[in-house]
Amino acid sequence: MCSDPLKNHKFARRKNKLQYAVPGGLIGVGTKIDPTLTRADRLVGQVLGHVGKLPEVYTELEISFFLLRRLLGVKTDGDSKKQSRVKRLMRNEVLMVNIGSTSTGGRVLAVKNDLAKIYLTNPVCTQEKEKLDTKSAC
What we know:
The protein is 3% helix and 42% strand. The chain has one helix at residues 35-38; strands spanning 10-13, 16-17, 28-30, 57-64, 70-75, 83-85, 94-99, 102-112, 115-125, 133-136.
């Protein structure tokens, strides 16, 4: 998306001028962005804030992770009662990464014990120590 600051914007909630917004709140933002960029929920997961006060934007993440032992709700080919075991993260594995309401793809660059380095397909604006979840893209 675009990382240029929005200027001369209007914040409103039901035609009332907005004094502040809270996480999870629904607000309207008047911009001069081309409507084709905003249709079909394309801005879901994007972050809006004052210039210079937003968290950093990352294209690579170093994460500490733990894997579930077995896949829940997935049957194996042979035995319908036995659950499939989760495989270890592998270098170059493609993942779906969810951080807050932002979803993006990622490729595992390196894995060591319970630490991994992931290259993101789209930049993400987030804080350090933020929780995220991943799943294999396959």
